[in-house]
Write a structure and sequence with these properties.
heteropentamer, A mainly alpha, B mainly alpha, C alpha/beta, D mainly alpha, E mainly alpha, B: Helix Hairpins, D: mainly alpha
Chain lengths: 493, 119, 190, 310, 618
């Protein structure tokens, strides 16, 4: 059996030898991310069946968990790391041709680092290590957001950086408080002792951690950086940020709330926040005119849905939320990747510039449509299954509070339908802008078509046969909710 | 080692954090904001060190056999702080680099004028 | 009804019905029409003879041209006449349709109406009194009885001539011929 | 079977004869009220014969078909209306002297729908005549129908609710047992009488075929035999409407003679009102129909519904 | 097995039509026609079958089931018939336009999804097919571009609202009873209180009401029906909105059941009566709005809303007579509305897209078959005797009178008069009157367009004279829903329902027509005249400019136009406009100044701590 630590070590090593490869052969670096992520994908998927039986705990330096830095490759971690590797692989393939200008080698290094950071976040079992991986993720994304170097991306990068830095400081304060209280950094260890400390002091640390990680998770009102960053980054990076980075943030928040603190009682409050996030995201997206910004706001809305599912604190709710994580990662990555070449083609990010794309880039438009339909939640795409699960979970709580929130959340779905389907109409049924009338049909290069097509195929496949992920979802939800067995597994022997 | 014990260390580091936060919230100059972030970072690092510090403790090195672990300061926070400082420095470097680019594009560092992205 | 009447009814009901059901199209071209309201209302009550004004030429069988006929009006008169279903009877009312009357020297008034459409009878006078109208109607009855009110047949028979007269006046007519003219008939005959 | 066939032939013939007679009567009545001598009673017959002998024009097959539809529809309607006679056996009114050949094939609802054929056929034919006067006339006709149909439906519904049946024979039978409808649903009877001129198309509601404004409206292009048939249709329609009134409110007739007498009374009353009124405009007609008759009929219906539910 | 095979054929047909279209247009056309015709045959062959079987076990932990029974068959035959006719009609209609393969794909997909809906044995597959139908229809509505885009968007947004409500409803049922299989739900449904049941029914009613365009949820329909391509308008109006009716029947009768349904009443109102009154309002107001329309398809669209009112009115009464009438009227309306939309489509096709009622006229001279069929359809819509529409409307009226609701009956009957007004306006303004000069040399509609029209027309007449044929199929449905089936004979009804004998009416009418025709033959043969030869006070008539259409019902318009507005639509539009403004304002919280953003972060932190201090949430 391969050790999960390779999931971090190998890409990290590859990231650092990439510049050297670049020195040796000019075109080489652009293949490295794909290789790294292919490796990660294979390893995570092969580990997943084992993890479903029992989490794989990896200790470094031979110390037992409370003292060492350790990795916990549970069902949730490996599920997410597979997702990260999958999206990462597709984006890496896409990035081969998409990134032509600028410091390409550094782009590839940083893109690996983002993914490594995200993988680390979902696999680690140590709070401070979580912070470190988080910073790897954040810092490389600050840099990548500013990759194009034009005024918008630089500004977005700077703003993202400022907010991210504040968030990191908060996380650090929270970790400090935790360490002060328990003298330990292992999540399992803290979780085992959490009830032994008076609640207010703990709550302050919880508040700091939620707020700090929440910045990356884009929960309202911490999400102001998101539309800027997602819209200004290169589309491949937008796909990673939207598909993976914020999921890592939400994973961190969930781990903190569920596993470390077991703070189920603050969840109604989180549910309120989530519905606010959802509505604000969808409403802002509705009146957007910039396609990437629109997609970014829509991500906020979807995050609201995920947090809503998580806030139900029931097995069905959490697994529904994780299903939304998967469906949103697939669909949003698809949308960003597809729109990337459309934007490149038209040179404009106006929604109206996508008009008539259906004849100019038919396959890309088709995939875009699949993604949009999936996000709106239309069957037979994966978005339907995930939304169906969310609604089912909310109604199964039989709690009036959640039913009312669900009704409000469904308004968000309606708004989402309105703006996405307007874009789809534009793709196929609106005349192309004047200057583009004479353009002939021209698809993006294969390196872009393949990822987009694979994503679309996955959306349809999982939508038609949700059994593909369903088992992993249940186990992952259990991983998150069942503190005792988590503690036992990690501290066990 | 109580959190709210009347310890000047905690007051000091949290005032640093608050001063930093104040600067970030109030000052419109991007450089000043970055300075504020750095002040916060420093405060947080100080706090981390303080968490592991024991009044009158010694370095956690078993140089003499008589030394008991109880008298030693906790080494873990110091390791954490080292990491945090490294991270802080890299963020600072990136921030400053971005600041230069922002100035190049906007010709100003006034955050009230750097509003190309909004809504 | 006397016995004579009944035998007539039995012999030719259509003719009798036409006699006693003269639904009139009053073509009010000039001052002549001023005498028609008394004719059809309470004072003289033409309805008791079956004479009734109708709204459109399609419904009537009596065509009364009441007053002078200017060139422009003639066009409408011809059109209206042609739209009436056969059998139909035309009566010129007053002296103007007969010979131009007081407009005898006008450049724009028709002096001989019967050159353009067949006229079965004339009621002279300027104005003819309502009594004269009744005299005209009873005269028309006798004409119908004798089969002499055959204007519509003449129109059909001599259509080419009538049409030529009309075209001499107006040039090319705006409507197609009602009956096949000689030229057309020749064309139709291979 | 033989009775049935005889009835089938008889009732349309009665309708034809009486209808045409009524047409003449109406002209005579109006003339007398206007202090004229007036045409003979059989004048419509002369007119019809005269028109049949004229060679009509045609604008197309629908132009002809419309007339056929209108007359045939009106004639068929007659078959559903009991024209006098007493019901002895409820289950089989046919065998016992009610002159209503098709009483078992529908009821009031069918009659209401069949009464559509007249206006509809005329409207279609007139539409095909491609004359704007005809179109305006049809537009007026349909609007007027809508106008009087609201109170008329209320009246019919009130009667049906009162007697809890949709069969006319049944309604007639119930009236003969327990008093006329004009006593049990008086306001409906008044409302129906108010809209009677509109349904008959006589003054003050003759705006559909107003000869002076729109050249007799739907009939503008009709002449010859078609006009003759339409005149007959008008008579039959007259007959149907008045027969319906008699059946619904005056208890039908014990036999055909009483039935016709009742019809005559209703018709003469309606004509006498018509003779002294001028023509009103379509807007006024609609406003009138939706005001007084509707209010009365609504009131009656409310009373009926309440009294039945209590 | 039958349902599975039918759905496989339908879905495979839809899926294959697109790639085939890329190969060859002709092959695709033949294929699409063949598939839709095959579907009619397959569905017809499934008559009388019943059964359930699982076709997909374990979709999100639920089993998906197909079910065949009388109700499903009745709707399936309607769907496949109208679907087939519209495909045949499309052959010429869309030839030479853009995205034809896509058009066929979407059209066949909509039909397949509708078949899926009616054959669904559980609510989840019902919902899935429902959604597929919704989005496929949205793509087709948008097909015409221009204003169609707005219509499509409006449709899909309202449709999503309805789906959300339905989703809540069906998952509430799942949460309560732990199954979504209809037959199992029907057994367990009584175990919860009436309040819960009412809530679920209201949620479903919103979904079904939006799809079936029940007032006041109808506002998507006029836009969508008028802007969609005409063959698809026929599908939309003929069968797609009937899916809402199917849903109502399914949920109200098959699922909740009669006994529970009638128990849902308060002191003053019951669920049924609310539905009935909505139906009555839906008859009255839309009918008269239809009278005022000048766009042929918009007129028909409003008329569809009115006719749906009849169906809901009949269905809402929960009596066997009413339900029979409603189901029969569902079929009838599908046929004659499809016919009318296709007829308008044929005219639109020949005149180059003109459907403004003020610009057409006299087309009977050029397209006599189209007119004749449209006339039959229009008469059916009015409900003239000897058309099938009469029998179904008669049943509905009879219900209203028998149940003692004269005011509802008044609404229904006045609606019929409104129908006369708009049907005549439609026929007159398009086909009668003066033929404009520009259309003087118009060709008749092509054969593939006339064929569906003639088929529909024959069905209307046939079932009008022999209503026993369709009523024989409706009877078992009513029986299976717990009501006593109406005793229908081949020609109408016996005395226990209220005597109605269509054949004798037909015979009498035929005799009368024959007699009148004989009289006409005896008189002189008429002389055909040209349309210019028309009475105009002796003036020559200008060719084709002598057609009275503009403000055809002027007095009515003047009197009622102030009241006959689409209040619901205005309200929704205003809400949507307000929401847009609100959304735009809300965006302003992202001010662009990073210090504000940091402030938000700090505020959340402070707020969390504050909340904990005050309320001790943890």
């Amino acid at each position: 059996m391969v050790s999960p630590i390779l999931l971090i070590a190998v890409p990290l090593g590859l990231a650092f030898i990439t510049p050297l490869l670049g020195l040796a052969r000019k075109g080489a670096p652009r293949y490295v991310p794909a290789v790294a992520m292919l490796f990660n994908l294979l390893v995570s998927v092969s580990l997943l069946p084992d993890a479903l039986r029992a989490p794989i705990v990896v200790r470094t330096a031979g110390w037992a968990p409370p003292f060492s830095i350790h990795l916990v490759a549970g069902p949730l971690g490996l599920l997410l790391s597979s997702l990260i590797a999958l999206i990462g692989l597709l984006v890496a393939v896409y990035g081969m041709d998409y990134i032509r200008e600028g410091a390409t080698t550094r782009y590839h290094v940083l893109s690996i680092l983002i993914l490594v950071g995200a993988t680390g976040v979902v696999l680690t079992g140590d709070v401070f290590n979580l912070f470190v991986f988080f910073e790897i993720l954040c810092i490389s994304s600050y840099a990548l957001v500013a990759y194009w170097g034009d005024s918008a991306s630089v500004e977005a990068g700077a703003k993202y950086l400022i907010q991210g830095a504040i968030g990191s400081s908060f996380v650090l304060i929270g970790i400090g408080l935790l360490y002060g209280a328990f003298g330990a950094l292992s999540m399992a260890d803290i979780a085992a002792n959490v009830s032994s400390v008076s609640s207010f002091r703990l709550f302050v640390s919880l508040a700091f951690l939620i707020t700090g990680f929440g910045v990356e998770a884009a929960v309202f009102p911490l999400n102001a950086w998101l539309p800027d960053a997602h819209s200004s980054a290169p589309s491949s990076i937008s796909a990673i940020l939207s598909g993976i980075a914020i999921k890592a943030g939400i994973y961190a928040v969930a781990r903190v709330v569920y596993t470390i603190y077991g703070a189920q009682s603050i969840l109604p409050f989180v549910a309120l926040l989530s519905v606010a996030t959802l509505l604000i995201g969808e409403m802002c997206a509705f009146s957007q005119n910039d396609i990437k910004r629109l997609l970014a706001y829509s991500s906020i809305g979807q995050m609201g849905l995920i947090v809503f599912g998580l806030a139900m604190a029931s097995a069905t709710g959490v697994s529904a939320a994780l299903f939304v994580v998967i469906s949103h990662a697939l669909a949003k990555a698809l949308l960003f990747l597809a729109s990337g070449y459309m934007i490149l083609r038209t040179g404009s990010r106006e929604v109206s510039s996508l008009n008539g794309m259906g004849t100019r880039m038919p396959l890309t438009s088709l995939c875009f449509t699949v993604g949009a339909f999936s996000l709106v939640g239309l069957p037979p795409f994966v978005g339907f299954a995930s939304k169906f699960m969310i609604v089912r979970a909310a109604l199964e709580t039989a709690d009036t509070f959640f039913v009312v929130l669900l009704a409000i959340a469904l308004i968000g779905t309606v708004i989402e339908g309105a703006y996405f389907l307007r874009i789809v109409q534009g793709l196929y049924f609106k005349p192309a802008p004047q200057q583009a009338r004479e353009e002939t049909r021209k698809e993006p290069p294969l390196s872009a078509l393949v990822p987009v097509g694979v994503l679309a195929a996955l959306i349809v496949a999982v939508g038609l046969y949700p059994g593909l992920v369903e088992r992993a979802l249940g186990a992952a939800a259990n991983d998150l909710l069942d503190r005792d067995s988590y503690v036992q597994n990690v501290m066990g022997d | 080692m109580s959190l709210l014990s009347p310890s000047i260390h905690y007051v000091g580091c949290f005032s640093l954090v608050l001063i930093g936060l104040y600067v970030v919230l109030v000052k419109p100059n991007l450089i000043k904001v970055i300075i504020g972030i750095n002040l916060m970072d420093t405060g947080v690092n100080l706090f981390l060190v303080t968490v592991g510090y024991i009044q009158g403790g010694t370095a956690p090195i078993f140089s003499e056999a008589a030394r008991q672990p109880e008298g030693m300061v906790d080494p873990v926070p110091q390791a954490l702080v080292l990491t945090a400082i490294v991270i802080g420095v890299s963020v600072l470097a990136l921030a400053l680099a971005l600041t230069i680019r922002v100035y190049g594009h906007y010709g100003t560092l006034d955050l009230r004028k750097i509003k190309g992205l909004r809504w | 009804m006397d016995r004579n009447q009944i035998t007539k009814w039995l012999k030719s009901p259509a003719k009798m019905a036409h006699k006693y059901s003269l639904h009139a199209v009053y073509f009010c071209t000039g001052c002549g029409i001023i005498e028609i309201p008394p004719v059809i209302t309470t004072r003289w009550d033409a309805e008791r003879f079956g004479v009734l004004p109708v709204a459109t030429p399609r419904q009537g069988n009596l065509f009364m041209i009441t007053g002078y006929v200017s060139l422009k009006t003639l066009k409408a008169i011809i059109r209206t006449y042609e739209q009436m279903p056969d059998p139909k009877y035309t009566v010129g009312f007053g002296s103007c349709p007969i010979n131009g009357g007081m407009y005898w020297d006008s450049y724009n008034t028709i002096k001989h109406l019967d050159r353009y459409i067949p006229v079965d009878g004339w009621i002279a006078g300027c104005m003819p009194r309502p009594e004269a109208v009744f005299v005209g109607v009873t005269h028309l009855w006798t004409l119908i009885d004798k089969g002499k009110a055959d204007g519509y047949l003449r129109y059909k028979r001599y259509y080419a001539a009538y049409r030529r007269n009309q075209e001499m006046l107006f040039g090319e007519l705006q409507w197609p011929p009602l009956y096949p003219t000689e030229a057309e008939a020749e064309e139709a005959r291979p | 079977m033989v009775t049935r066939i005889i009835q089938l032939l008889l009732s349309p013939l009665i309708a034809l004869a009486v209808g045409v007679l009524f047409l003449g009567l109406s002209r005579k009545i109006i003339a007398r009220i206007h202090r004229r001598y007036g045409p003979p009673l059989y004048q419509p017959v002369i007119d019809v014969i005269r028109m049949m002998s004229q060679r009509s024009i045609s604008h197309g097959s629908l132009f002809e078909l419309g007339v056929v539809l209108a007359l045939a529809g009106s004639l068929v309607t007659v078959l559903f209306i009991p024209l006098g006679g007493t019901v002895i056996c409820r289950q089989n009114p046919l065998a016992h002297g009610v002159l209503c050949p098709l009483s078992s094939s529908g009821g009031l609802l069918v009659v209401m729908y069949l009464m559509l054929f007249g206006p509809l056929g005329l409207a279609l034919g007139a539409g095909d005549s491609a004359n704007p006067n005809a179109s305006i006339g049809v537009s007026r006709k349909l609007l007027l129908a809508l106008a009087y149909e609201v109170p008329f439906l209320l009246v019919i519904l009130a009667v049906m609710s009162h007697y809890r049946t949709i069969s006319i024979t049944e309604i007639v039978a119930r009236q003969q047992e327990s008093g006329w409808g004009v006593l049990s649903v008086p306001l409906s009877a008044v409302a129906a009488f108010l809209i009677l001129p509109a349904m008959l198309g006589i003054r003050p509601f003759d705006l559909v075929s107003a000869p002076q404004e729109i050249a007799s409206g739907p009939l503008a292009e009709y002449g010859g035999s078609y006009l003759a048939l339409l005149a007959v249709q008008k008579g039959v329609h007259l007959f149907v409407v008045i027969a319906l009134y008699v059946d619904l409110f005056l208890g039908g007739g014990v036999n055909l003679a009483t039935f016709l007498v009742k019809m005559l009374v209703v018709f003469v009353a309606a004509e006498m009102i018509a003779a002294v009124l001028p023509r009103i405009r379509i807007e006024s007609a609609v406003r009138f129909c939706w005001k007084w008759p509707t209010a009365l009929a609504l009131l009656q219906m409310a009373i009926t519904v309440l009294s039945k539910s209590v | 097995m039958g349902a599975g095979a039918i759905l496989t054929v339908a879905l495979a047909g839809a899926g294959l039509s697109y790639p085939l279209g890329l190969l060859s247009a002709k092959v695709r056309n033949v294929f699409a026609t063949a598939v839709s015709a095959l579907l009619v045959c397959l569905v017809a062959a499934a008559y009388g079958r019943s059964g359930e079987h699982v076709y997909y076990s374990g979709f999100l932990g639920l089993d998906l089931i197909l079910r065949t029974d009388a109700l499903a068959w009745f709707f399936a035959i309607t769907v496949s018939l109208v679907g087939c006719l519209s495909v045949v009609f499309s052959l010429r209609y869309v030839r030479g336009r853009e995205k034809v393969s896509f058009y066929y794909f979407a059209l066949l997909l909509v039909n397949a999804a509708m078949l899926g809906i009616v054959f669904s044995g559980d609510l989840l597959s019902f919902f899935i097919f429902w959604e597929v139908m919704s989005w496929a229809a949205y793509l087709l509505i948008s097909y015409n571009r221009g204003r169609a885009l707005y219509a499509g968007l409006k449709y899909i947004v309202m449709s999503i609202i309805g789906s959300c409500a339905m989703l809540v409803g069906l998952l509430s049922l799942y949460a309560a009873h732990d199954t979504l299989v209809i037959s199992e739900l029907a057994e367990r449904i009584g175990s919860r209180g009436t309040g819960f049941l009412l809530g679920v029914l209201v949620a479903f009613s919103i979904g079904f009401g939006i799809k079936s365009a029940m007032v006041p949820l109808h506002t998507w329909l006029p836009d969508a029906h008028s802007e969609a391509p005409s063959p698809f308008s026929a599908v939309l109006s003929g069968i797609l909105i009937k899916m809402g009716i199917y849903g109502f029947v399914l949920v109200m009768y098959a699922l909740v059941g009669l006994k529970l349904l009638l128990g849902l009443r308060g002191a003053w109102v019951s669920f049924n009566s609310v539905l009935c009154w909505l139906g009555a309002i839906g008859i009255l107001i839309p009918t008269f709005i239809a009278v005022l329309q000048t766009d042929a398809k918009r007129l028909l669209a409003w008329s569809s809303i009115g006719q749906i009112g009849y169906i809901i009115l009949g269905m809402g009464f929960a009596t066997s007579l009413g339900l029979t009438g409603a189901l029969f009227h569902t079929f009838n309306h599908a046929v004659f509305k499809a016919l009318l939309f296709l007829a308008v489509g044929a005219v639109e096709y020949r005149t180059g897209g003109v459907r403004d009622l003020n610009e057409l006229g006299g087309l009977i001279k050029r397209m006599p078959v189209t007119f004749a069929c449209a006339l039959v359809g229009g008469l059916g819509l009015i409900g003239v005797p000897l058309t099938s529409g009469f029998v179904s409307k008669w049943l509905i009226y009879k219900t209203l009178i028998a149940e003692g609701h004269p005011f509802l009956a008044l609404a229904a009957l006045v609606g019929t008069w409104g129908a006369i007004l708009y049907v005549y306006k439609l026929l007159h303004n398009m086909f009668l009157g003066q033929l404009p000069e520009k259309y003087a040399h118009l060709e008749a509609a092509p054969f593939t367009m006339r064929l569906p029209l003639v088929v529909c027309g024959s069905i209307i007449i046939l079932f009008g004279i022999l209503p026993g044929i369709p009523l024989g199929a409706v009877g078992p449905i009513v029986g299976s829903l717990g009501l006593e089936p109406v005793q229908a004979t081949l020609t109408g009804f016996g005395p226990q329902v209220g005597p109605l004998n269509m054949v004798s009416i037909f015979a009498a009418a035929a005799l009368a027509v024959l007699a009148v025709l004989l009289v006409l033959r005896a008189s002189a043969a008429p002389r055909r005249v040209a349309q210019e030869d028309s009475y105009a006070a002796g003036s020559p008539v200008p060719a084709g400019r002598y057609h009275h259409t503009v403000r055809f019902y002027d007095p009515l318009e003047g009197a009622t136009i102030g009241y006959l507005r689409d209040w619901a639509d205005e309200f929704y539009t205003r809400v949507a406009g307000g929401a847009r403004g609100g959304f735009d304002g809300l965006r302003r919280i992202y001010t662009g100044d990073v210090r504000n953003y940091v402030m938000y972060i700090v505020c959340l932190l402070a707020f969390l701590i504050f909340v904990q201090m005050v309320w001790h949430i943890w």
